[in-house]
Amino acid sequence: MYFVSTLCCLVPNSYRILWQFISEKYSYIKERVFMLVLTIYQSYHKISYKIFKLFNKKHSLQRRGKISWNDTNTGSWIIYNAQNKQLQNQPFKLPVNSNGAVDYSKIVTDDNFSNYNFDFIIHKIACGGNEFNDITLLNSIVIEQLRQYNVLAPNNQEADLALASAYLTNYAHAKHYACFDTSFHQYIPPKHRIISLSAKHLKQGVQNYGNLGLVFNGISTKFGDISDKKMAKGRWVIAYLQDNLNVCCAIKNGKSSYCSSSTLHNELPSIYNAGYGDLKLSTLLNDNSVSDGNLLAISEQPLASIEEIINSNSEETQLNLDFYINQISETIAKLVNVIQGIDGIVFTGKLGQNNAKLRQLICHKLTWLGVSISNKANLENQCKLHKKSSKIGVFTMLAEPESAMLQQLAKRID
C-alpha cells in the first residue's frame, strides 16, 4: 500500500492506469475462481443433467434436472436446487424434426442451459469400443470416429452423439469431454465377453463391452466410505435394478470382471426384454412373439411395472416374481464364482435402492452364501443392511454416474 500511495502522489495518471489494470484483473480472478461444469447423461426416454461449481479440485452441486418423455413424446422437465428443493416442474414436448429425429438443438439452447457460461461439458457416450477407454476431448472428428460403434449400441450411441453434437455446436466456448459407459469394463477377460458363438461376429467386434460403467465406477470408488480398506479392495457384486434395465456387475480390486449386460444383450429380464434365451426358439416354434417377450408377459395379467409384480400378492403374478428373483439371485451367484468369492453386495437403481421387499427376497435366496440382513435396516432403506453375524456386507447406494465423470475430468485437467 505504501508503494501504491507514493506512486499516487508522484505519478497520479500512471497510478490510475495501474490501479484500473489491477482492479480489472482482480475482478476477473474474483469472478473466475471456480469453473462451471455440466454433466449430461442420456438414457431411455430421459436426459439427466447436473451443474457443478469446480474449485480447487472440489465440486459442489448447483442444479440438477431431469427431462423425461413417454412414447407419445410428452413428459416433464424437472429442476432441483442443491438442497433438493424443486424449482421447476413443467410439461415437456420432445422436439422432433420432419424426418422423425429428435431436434436436440432446441433442448440445449433452452434458457435452463443457455443462461450459464459453462467451462466444461461432460457427455456420457454409450460405447467407446476397444479404442476409447478413457475420458476423451470431444470434437467433430472424434464424434465421427465414434459413429463406427453405432452398430454395437443401436439404441444409445446415435442418440448420445446427436445430443453431444448439439452442445458442441451451441457451446463452442466450452471444453467438451466424452466419458464412456464401456471404459470401466475394459478389464473383463475375453472369455466373459462372448455373446455370440460366431467367429465372424468376434472379428466384427460384436462382444460384451459392458453397460452402465459410469454408474458402477462411481459406486466402486465409494467402497472405502462404507467398508474398511481391505474390504474395499476385495470382491463385490453391484445389482442395478430398475423397470427398464437390470444389470449385475462383478468387481475385484476395483476393476470390472464381469457385466451381465451390454448395449447389445441383457442376461436379466426387464419390462422390455426377456433376458437370455435360446436364439433359435422363435424359429423352432415359428412364433415371432418369442422375441417380444418380457417379464410382464409371463402372465396374462395387465401389468405395468416390476414394482407392481413385487407388491401384487396375486397367484396370477407369482410366477413373474419367482422368475425375476431367481434370475437375479442366480446371476449374483454366477458372478461370485467368476471372482471366486464375495465381500460385499450393493443394491442400486430405483428398485434396488428403494424396494425393501425385493432386497429381502433376493437376500433370502443368498443365505447359503452367509448373507443375513436386518429387517429394520432393510425396511428403512439404510445404507448398511447386513447384521453383524452376516459373512457378507450388504448395502444400498445411489446410482450417480456423474461422480465418475467428475473424477475423470479432475484427473484429466490436473
Brief summary of the model shown:
By secondary structure, the chain is an alpha/beta fold. Helices cover 36% and strands 21% of the residues.
Strand order of the largest sheet: 5-4-3-2-1-6-8-7
Report the portion of residues in β strands.
Answer: 15-25%
Instruction: Please identify the top-level CATH class of the largest domain.
Output: Alpha Beta
Output mean pLDDT.
Answer: 91
User: Which structural class fits the helix and strand makeup?
Assistant: alpha/beta
In words, what does this structure look like?
The protein is α/β, with parallel strands linked by helices. The chain folds into two domains: 35-180, ATPase, nucleotide binding domain (Nucleotidyltransferase, domain 5, 2-Layer Sandwich), CATH 3.30.420; 226-401, Nucleotidyltransferase, domain 5 (2-Layer Sandwich). It is built from 17 helices and 13 strands. The strands form two sheets. The protein has an eight-stranded mixed β-sheet, sandwiched between helices. Mean pLDDT is 91; it is low at 1-11 and 25-31.
Secondary structure layout plus pairing:
Elements: H1 2-10, H2 12-31, E1 35-43, E2 46-55, E3 58-69, E4 74-81, E5 86-93, H3 104-108, H4 111-114, E6 120-125, E7 136-137, H5 140-146, H6 157-170, E8 175-180, H7 199-203, H8 213-220, H9 223-226, H10 229-232, E9 235-241, E10 246-252, E11 255-259, H11 281-285, H12 306-310, H13 315-338, E12 344-348, H14 349-354, H15 356-365, H16 375-379, E13 393-396, H17 401-413
Parallel strand pairs: 1-6, 6-8, 9-12, 12-13
Antiparallel strand pairs: 1-2, 2-3, 3-4, 4-5, 7-8, 9-10, 10-11
Helix pairs in contact: 1-2, 8-17, 13-15
